[in-house]
Write a structure and sequence with these properties.
This protein is of the alpha+beta class and about 375 residues long. It folds into 4 domains: about 90 residues, Zinc finger, CHC2-typedomain (DNA Primase, Chain A, Alpha-Beta Complex); about 40 residues, no CATH class; about 100 residues, Dna Topoisomerase Vi A Subunit, Chain: A, domain 2, CATH 3.40.1360; about 60 residues, no CATH class. It contains 10 helices and 13 strands. The strands form 3 sheets. It has a 5-stranded antiparallel β-sheet, with helices on one face. The chain has a 4-stranded antiparallel β-sheet with strand order 6-7-8-9, with no helix packed on it. Helix 1 packs across helix 4 and helix 3 crosses helix 4. The chain is globular. The termini are far apart.
């Protein structure tokens, strides 16, 4: 049988040279080889990278990835693992790439499906089994793992964050229908926090880009339900958004062009599904590139500061208390009842306004 471990070990010994041949438009960045994905219309390097020490690779825009250089060769050349291993061995001029051992499962390239406006959840081949201990065979235990659950509350995937001195990478660990594997979840994928979205049908849904940002947004908007999708900006269409039909949605984008683009795409898609409304937060001018809800929390933003982002939304009464507006749009009873204006905030709002609907005031106010 093919000596996968031996071939991979030999490939890692010359990883940079091999990758210069396979992905010639890339460059080394610390322990990573950063490049464009040649299998899709990737305009610039950044989302596709290969770890030069472990061989782990991922396209964070699509959710595709693998655990070694043989899997990468199979992905790039649309072939099976055995063919890939032999080709890599030939490239390395290995004289004996064969040994008696169990054959590895085939690599199955992820399908590139076009966005679908009305996608019904697919039934897995079997009910998801509880996930084993999450430990990558090369990287070990993740620094953090965000859990995705289906509408029945069963875990179907994890976004696993690994960190070292050179940065971070997020790898998907998923139930594929038969077993748990280090690969992207099957499509259509569930929303992050789906059971909570379903259990609070009247709550405003706050969409953020990434699980860490969604958790931060949940803390700043506890009346709502925070959610996100798996796989990065360019994989939003691989998620089942049907649970947001008829819902009030606020999208908190990252402060960069991809963030604004995906916010507009998701907004259009949700409105087409029949969402009650979808508002995209207009971020203040001058924020750092890529800034998101997690950065807001790290900088000490209060609930009141976050609610300020909602003041003056289109179709929002001028100066209305944003929290009362949030509550009125999901369960209107004769329209908003709060008459306090934003213009004199916070002096014009009494202290007993639900402990001021906005939470702690900012220092200096």
């Amino acid at each position: 049988m093919i000596d996968f471990e031996g071939i991979n070990a030999a490939a890692l010994g010359n990883a940079e040279g091999i990758l210069q041949n396979w992905l010639p438009d890339g460059k080394r960045n610390g322990r990573e080889w950063v490049c464009r994905n040649p299998k899709r219309a990737d305009n610039r390097a950044g989302s596709f990278s290969v770890n030069l020490h472990s061989g782990v690779w991922a396209d964070f825009a699509t959710g595709e990835g693998g655990g070694d250089l043989i899997a990468l060769y199979a992905f790039l050349n649309d072939c099976e693992q055995g063919q890939a291993a032999r080709a890599v061995a030939d490239e390395l001029r290995m004289t004996n790439p064969i040994r008696k051992r169990e054959r590895r499962p085939k690599y199955q390239p992820a399908k590139q499906n076009a966005p679908q406006a009305h996608t019904a959840p697919l039934k897995a081949k079997t009910e998801p089994k509880p996930a084993p201990e999450i430990r990558h065979y090369k990287l070990g235990a993740p620094a953090f793992a965000w859990e995705y659950r289906n509408e029945a509350g069963q875990a179907t995937g994890y976004a696993c964050r690994y960190e070292d001195e050179n940065g971070k990478q997020v790898l998907p660990f998923s139930w594929t229908g038969e077993k748990w594997e280090w690969r992207a979840m099957p499509e259509p994928r569930p929303l992050y926090n789906l059971p909570r979205v379903l259990n609070k049908p009247q709550a405003v849904v706050i969409i953020a880009e990434g699980e860490k940002a969604a958790d931060a947004a949940q803390g700043l908007f506890p009346e709502g339900v925070a959610a996100t999708w798996a796989g990065g900006c360019k994989a939003w269409h691989k998620t089942d958004w049907q649970p947001l039909k008829g819902r009030a949605v606020i999208f908190w984008p990252d402060n960069d062009r991809p963030g604004q683009t995906v916010a507009a795409d998701v907004q259009e898609h949700l409105l087409g599904l029949g969402a009650k409304f979808v508002k995209v937060i207009a971020l203040p001018f001058g924020l750092p590139q890529g800034w998101d809800a997690a950065d807001a929390v790290a900088e000490g933003w209060t609930r009141g500061m976050a609610l300020e982002l909602l003041a003056g939304f289109p179709n929002t009464p001028e100066g209305l208390c944003p929290l009362c507006w949030l509550r009125s749009v999901v369960a209107p009873v004769g329209g908003p009842t709060c008459k306090h204006t934003f213009k004199g905030w916070p002096e014009t709002w009494p202290a007993n306004h639900e402990d001021f609907c906005h939470g702690p005031r900012r220092a200096g106010d």
